[in-house]
Amino acid sequence: MLQSFKCEACKSNNQPSVSNHKDNSHLPDCKDEISLNTIGVIKTMFLEKRAVPRQASEAARIISRIELNSRIFNNPEHSLEGLETFSHIWILYYFHRNQIHLKSKVAPPRLGGERVGVFSTRSPHRPCPIGLSLVQLDRIDNGTIYFYGTDMVDGTPVLDIKPYIPQYDVPRKIERQEFFSPREAPDGEENCESVKTASTSTSGNLVSNVTVPNWVTNCKYLSVTFNETAEQQLQELAVEKKSITEILRADPRSVYLRTKYGSQIYTFQLGENTVTCKFDDQNSIVNVLQVRKVVILGDIPVSDDE
């Protein structure tokens, strides 16, 4: 069977079987492009890419939601049955605001302009602009999923949703005898208690075989302060102070802005409000100057003082 096997592309092109190829470079590409259907859309407070957190954990207090597409399922809420029993979920999505990036190297913000291979980073600028985020599930309301942890812009298309399972998703040290472990339960039949036990019993082995480069772990957070005007505006607008702190302490500026325009005034939109702050790069401080409500005049959003 293996010697006579042909993929669908080979069959349609009347190509010889795989085993008859002496050089795999002559094999036809079975499929260069893949068409995927989006299952829903993510609604967040970030209407623009500016100041969107680089990781979901950097904005753990900001709540967002996924609205499932009723064209995929007539009753989208049926596809979510059982998901409420998990605390965290993986979200796979499409960077719809980014063009396809065909450069093999990118410059992560933490490297200060130094370039590394794109596949050694989580940069959103990729040959296949697909994002992956681990978020905390808040609640499910019919066909809508509410979650904490946001690093997506508003309107991001969702490709898939998967539950986070520590038994499978947390790296652990592989012992030789593990290759002869008992049969795993089929998908969908895992026991919650066994998952908890596995995640607990292997906690001592989590760090032994997990490594990351120093530029990832050596992350310095900024000190975020608010002046009296901003403090008063936060109370008037009922804006959560800690959400703004989480965004700014990780320094959302690009390498270009940080190096060319150091210690500058920086503004970004957060939902219905505009936040204005000033960076002090020498002392690693960012001071929030004001928080204003955005007023829509026609098609042009402006702050309420303009």
Could you please describe the fold and organization of this structure?
A six-stranded antiparallel beta barrel has the order 1-2-7-6-3-8. Strands 9, 10, 11, 12 and 13 form a five-stranded mixed beta sheet that branches. A two-stranded antiparallel ribbon has the order 4-5. The relative contact order is 0.14. It has seven helices and 13 strands. The protein is an alpha+beta fold and 306 residues long. The chain is 16% helix and 26% strand. It has three domains: 40-168, Elongation Factor Tu (Ef-tu), domain 3 (Beta Barrel), CATH 2.40.30.70; 172-205, no CATH class; 220-303, YaeB-like fold, CATH 3.30.2310.20.
Primary descriptors:
306 residues, alpha+beta, Elongation Factor Tu (Ef-tu), domain 3, YaeB-like fold, 3 domains, six-stranded antiparallel beta barrel, five-stranded mixed sheet, 7 helices, 13 strands, 16% helix, globular
Topology:
Elements lengths: L7 H5 L27 E4 L19 E6 L19 E7 L10 E2 L9 E2 L12 E12 L2 E5 L7 E8 L2 H4 L22 H10 L12 H4 L5 E4 L1 H10 L3 H9 L5 H6 L4 E6 L2 E8 L4 E13 L2 E4 L3
Parallel strand pairs: 9-12
Antiparallel strand pairs: 1-2, 1-8, 2-7, 3-6, 3-8, 4-5, 6-7, 10-11, 11-12, 12-13
